[in-house]
Amino acid sequence: MAANFGKNYKISIFGESHGNALGVNIDGIPAGTELNLEFLSQEMRRRAPGRSKLTTPRVEKDEFEILSGFFDGKTTGTPLAMIIRNSNQRSKDYSELKRKPRHADWSGFNRYNGFNDIRGSGHFSGRITASLVFAGAIAKQILKSQGILIAAHIKSVKDIEDRDFVESDITEKNINKLRNMTLPVLNEEIVEKIEKVVEKTREEKNSLGGIVELMVTGLPAGIGDPYFESMESELSRMIFSVPATKGIEFGAGFGITEMTGYEANDEMYFDENGEIKSFTNNNGGIIGGITTGMPISFKVAIKPTASIEKAQKTVNLETKKNDILEVHGRHDPIIVPRAVPVLEAATAIVILDRVLEAKKYQL
Ligand SMILES: Cc1cc2nc3c(=O)[nH]c(=O)nc-3n(C[C@H](O)[C@H](O)[C@H](O)COP(=O)(O)O)c2cc1C
Ligand SMILES: C=C(O[C@@H]1CC(C(=O)O)=C[C@@H](OP(=O)(O)O)[C@H]1O)C(=O)O
User: Fold this and answer.
1) Domain-by-domain residue ranges, the chain?
2) What string of DSSP letters covers 256-286?
3) Closest ligand 2 atom to the C-alpha of 56?
4) Is 334 exposed, middle or buried (0-12, 13-18, 19+ CB in 10 A)?
5) Which CATH class is domain 4-361?
6) Which residue of 62, 154, 222, 267 pairs with 44 in a disulfide if CB–CB is 3.0 to 4.6 A?
């Protein structure tokens, strides 16, 4: 089923943006895992809507309720189900959109024979990513206990660029700092520039996109598989499940095509502790679908928000005539900052699933 992901850390998501609730059922959490509920809440707040002037004004607390699989502060090992109740639906904003489709309304209408819930785009809404953040936050806690850390920052908005991650950026202290920033960037001088360009674009009834960079450290060499379950394949499958994702590149990405083989090869050496490293990481920590022991590094392209107030051409499915669409309602003028915690969580789910898979073939 399309709503399911994972072979070992298995998630099944459900819900609609304007329905009663959304949530996730997680199977495969090791029994006896202590959950830090405050950390889970913090992660939910990082993604929640209505938390800054750069996000949609729809305010939702995104308080989660754990229904099963958790007892006396520890997981029981049986499925852990979580729901979040929706509290701030304004479905009249969508009354026109049944006739005049926006983002996934037209493709979803055809896929579900017209029975898709169009209120807030139903299951297609970015709101459903709250479930990913919850499952990812549990995965992050488990991975951290194994020395595996995941970090993300905004790499660019329009033509405003942050510097790239280096391995030494990935410390618990730096991750905590980024987690507490509305605009998580490494070069804080660009924060104001981003705020200004987003504000200006919003005033022009338009929206912006950008790039998020992620890095995973602490993974040993040898996790993953060749071909269909390669680490890149699994990560890409999950990352493309995050609404608004339009591209992913590992390591030097498309830029590697401009290098010669001599430049592109990541030359290896023994470091002062006798560990094998490479001087460069153009392959993004994955070769042959399997981790090399270098950090996994990748960038994700997030498109500009589809729902904009600026008038655009569309079709009217009722009159069967060409028409004009102006989307009123509550929308993110840019999805990128809210995508940061979602992409981290999505990455954590995949990495944990692959780490558990590796336990099957490594004694
Ligand atoms: C956290 C988050 C928030 C989003 N907010 C909006 C929004 O306010 N308005 C909108 O049109 N799209 C928003 N999106 C993107 C749409 O959900 C997405 O574009 C749509 O489902 C179609 O999917 P696609 O763009 O991946 O093809 C958001 C996505 C995420 C991850
Ligand atoms: C509610 C959230 O964001 C929503 C994501 C979204 C979309 O089309 O993806 C459209 C808007 O929905 P609504 O019209 O219901 O306010 C956003 O507010 C959320 O992320 O929790």
Assistant:
1) 4-361
2) GGGS-HHHHS--EEE-TTS-EEES--TTTTE
3) 18
4) buried
5) alpha beta
6) 62
276 bridge partner residues: 270
CA of 175 to the centre of ligand 1 (A): 25
Number of the ligand 1 atom closest to the C-alpha atom of 245: 26
- Total count of residues recorded for the chain: 363
* pLDDT tens for each residue of 171-199: 999 999 999 999 999 999 999 999 999 99
ipTM greater than 0.90, yes or no? yes
Q: What is the DSSP letter of 103?
A: T
The Å distance, Cα 232 to ligand 1 centre, comes to 23
- What is the pLDDT confidence band of residue 1, given thresholds at 50, 70 and 90? low
Tokens 């790499």 belong to which residue?
155
Euclidean distance between CA atoms 173 and 341, whole angstroms: 17
Q: What is the model's pTM?
A: 0.97
* Dihedral Cα 195, 198, 201, 207, nearest 10 deg: 180
